[in-house]
Write a structure and sequence with these properties.
Helices cover about 45% and strands about 15% of the residues. The protein is of the alpha+beta class. The strands form 3 sheets. The protein has a 6-stranded antiparallel beta sheet, with helices on one face. The protein has a 6-stranded antiparallel beta sheet with strand order 4-5-6-7-11-12, covered by helices on one side. The radius of gyration is 24 Å and the shape is globular. The C terminus is likely disordered.
Length: about 650
């Protein structure tokens, strides 16, 4: 796991330009740095040493140095690939997975990506062709950002490295902000910066001065034809698939640990790992939280004790007040409640290991969110005549309060009602944005600089297109595909990458092995969402290895509930960032509408907790990344707004370079 950066230009590239980029992402690879400077090209690398600790420095070239690579990630099948390449006559100087990609490129050119099993983002400079070739892994675990301006091409693992190369890139992208407020996600190719683009998962990119930038998809999920066989037989096969993936994910020259949240996914990973003796007693990490039903530490402890892991547990009271500026700096995007949880447990794990396994991807593979069956129920409700729903039920729902909780009955009924008037990809896209800013709310909120965007940009288009493009017939499979294309890589996995790498920690997700994903896609729907039972096959497998109390535990969604749990902290942050909005001063938002949302929420007239969170974070992002306010200065402003008694007991803020 590392950080990469580079520049290709018709003019000369200076070493100091590349070094400035890699210095900005030092946290991704604190162990070493490496540079390659050629004619019109510079490649930079920050290394977190995981494989071949002594000779694995990057950039790495081929035998005659006509091909040079910088690579971020892990290739889990590199040993098998290396053996085959040796038989074909290739010579190796290291034992790294990085050098395997170099020789694969020599052998197969751009089709080298079809041989890789792992998580990766890499860039190869081909001196003979005067061409840059780059690729991002199948499910988007590793990031790749780029800028193409005239005869210059920049790329990096994080946007802050691009800004270090060219501060003029710090310009707000109104379309990305619109999508963030609508869906709480920013989908490729958009980023929050106007000129910066994201390479989508499962895509490769070529850049040359003659042809410019070309982006090509190299892999996709297929949901048909469905596997046949009994529930038991398919569960056996799922276990075999996961065990194979786990074996590959344990390839490392340093110790590997595991997150153990107490949820189904991470506990199943640890249980399979230990039951099949794929590791010595592994180090596991969990956080205890003082929020009653949201404290999953006892369940994690139960699994750790059953399988004899070396378990580390820490009870914390999360503080968004202390942490928000660091989250916004590391993410390069507006923050999300999930980032706080990931940041804290990553810091804890990094005290013991460099590599951790996690359970990310299980929900999107097997159907773990209630919106999957909720969309089905919206279809059933839609069988009622429209007039009955619109003028009968709709009129009654006006008198149902939202409640002071994001999963209240009022919210669920209104969500279902609104979706019943839509269908297909439009219904699914709209279902994702219920708690955020729909078109009517954005029309009221936006100032003059954003109003025209409402006529020219559709923030839901990416979700809708993915839903319609899916190689699937069942609507739930189409939802799963859309989530795998957009929400998984550009929300939860994006956050996981930034928050673990903020601490120089490598995270690995066995569920996101693309072979496991291919198998899961073709499972019959009865083994995914069966009535209101979610992740049915995963639970069948879990019954073999996990304690009964954990199997009966409902999915908690702690991070989504943070705006409700940390009400006092949020009130303070609202006062710092929203009562005098810089985005409103810039003509992006309207201050009177922000004030109205705040008033309605704080007086209990309406539930705008998640919407105010989006506004708060977009404001913090704007001040930091566009106006240039530093992490320490922003932290100081928050500290100043706190009551004196609270300030005195707060821990010292962590400094971010």
């Amino acid at each position: 796991m590392c950080g990469i950066a580079g520049k290709v230009s018709a003019s000369s590239v200076r070493e100091e330009d590349i070094r400035r980029m890699t210095d900005r992402i030092h946290h991704r690879g604190p162990d070493d740095t490496g540079l390659f400077i050629g004619k019109g090209v510079g490649l930079g690398h920050r290394r977190l040493s995981i494989i071949d600790l002594h000779t694995g420095r990057q950039p790495i070239g081929n035998e005659d140095r006509t091909i040079t690579i910088v690579f971020n990630g892990e290739i889990y099948n590199y040993r098998e690939l290396r053996a085959d390449l040796l038989r074909r006559g290739h010579r190796f100087e290291t034992q790294t997975d990085t050098e395997v990609i170099v020789h694969l490129y020599e052998e197969y050119g751009e089709f080298c990506v079809k041989h890789l099993r792992g998580m990766f983002a890499f860039a190869i400079w081909d001196e003979r062709e005067r061409r840059l070739f780059a690729a991002r892994d199948h499910l988007g675990q590793k990031p790749f950002f780029y800028v193409h301006r005239g005869d210059t091409f920049l790329f990096a693992s994080e946007i802050k490295a691009l800004l270090a190369a060219d501060r003029s890139l710090a310009e707000l992208n109104p379309a990305a902000l619109d999508q963030y407020l609508c869906l709480r996600v920013i989908a490729p190719p958009l980023s929050m910066f106007k000129a910066v683009q994201k390479l989508p998962p499962a895509h490769s990119l070529t850049f040359s001065f003659d042809t410019g930038v070309t982006v090509t998809r190299y892999w996709d999920l297929q949901y048909e034809p469905k596997y046949t066989g009994s529930d038991e037989a398919l569960t056996d096969e799922l276990e075999a698939q996961l065990v194979e993936a786990l074996k590959l994910h344990m390839v490392s020259d340093v110790p590997v640990g595991a997150f153990l949240s107490g949820g189904l996914d991470s506990t199943l990973i640890v249980a399979l790992l230990m039951h099949h003796r794929l590791s010595d007693p592994i180090q596991t990490f969990s956080m205890g939280l003082p929020y009653g039903q949201y404290n999953e530490a006892p369940l994690a402890r139960m699994v750790a004790e059953r399988y004899g892991t070396r378990h580390f547990e820490k009870t914390i009271t999360p503080s968004m007040v202390d942490t928000l500026p660091r989250l916004v700096w590391h993410l390069d995007e507006p923050s999300d409640p999930l980032s706080l949880c990931s940041y804290l447990i990553s810091g804890m794990a990094r005290e013991h290991v460099k590599v951790v396994l996690g359970g990310d991807g299980g929900d999107e593979l097997f159907g773990g969110y209630d919106r999957y069956y909720g969309n089905r129920y919206a279809g059933y409700y839609a069988f009622l005549p429209e007039a009955v729903r619109r003028y009968g039920v709709g009129a009654l729902l006006q008198f149902v309060p939202d409640g002071r909780w994001y999963k209240s009955v009022g919210h669920q009924l209104k969500w279902l009602h609104r979706l019943s008037f839509l269908d297909g990809g439009t219904r699914y896209a709209r279902s994702l944005g219920y708690f955020y800013f729909g078109l009517d709310l954005r029309q009221n909120l936006y100032g003059p600089r954003m109003q025209a965007l409402l006529e020219t940009f559709d923030p839901e288009q990416g979700i809708r297109e993915a839903y319609d493009r899916a190689h699937a017939t069942d609507p739930v499979d189409r939802m799963l595909y859309a989530d795998n294309q957009i929400r998984l890589p550009d929300h939860s996995v994006m956050i996981l990458d930034r928050m673990t790498m903020a601490h120089g920690l490598e995270s690995r997700s066995p569920f996101m092995d693309h072979k496991v994903a291919e198998f899961a896609a073709r499972l019959p729907m009865r083994l995914k969402v069966r009535g209101r039972s979610l992740r049915y096959i995963e639970k069948l497998l879990a019954k073999r290895y996990l304690p009964e109390p954990l199997l009966k535990m409902r999915k908690q969604g702690f991070s989504v509930a943070l705006p409700y749990m940390l009400r006092d902290q949020y009130r303070l942050l609202f006062s710092v960032f929203l009562t005098n909005s810089h985005l409103a001063q810039a003509g992006i938002y309207r201050q009177d509408k922000i004030d109205e949302l705040l008033s309605d929420h704080l007086t209990g007239k309406a539930d705008h907790g998640n919407r105010l969170w989006l506004l708060l974070n977009s404001e913090a992002w704007y001040r930091m990344h566009i106006e240039g306010v530093g992490v320490d200065d922003m932290s100081g402003e928050i500290q100043t707004a706190m009551p004196a008694t609270s300030r005195e007991t707060r821990p010292t803020q962590e400094r971010v370079a």
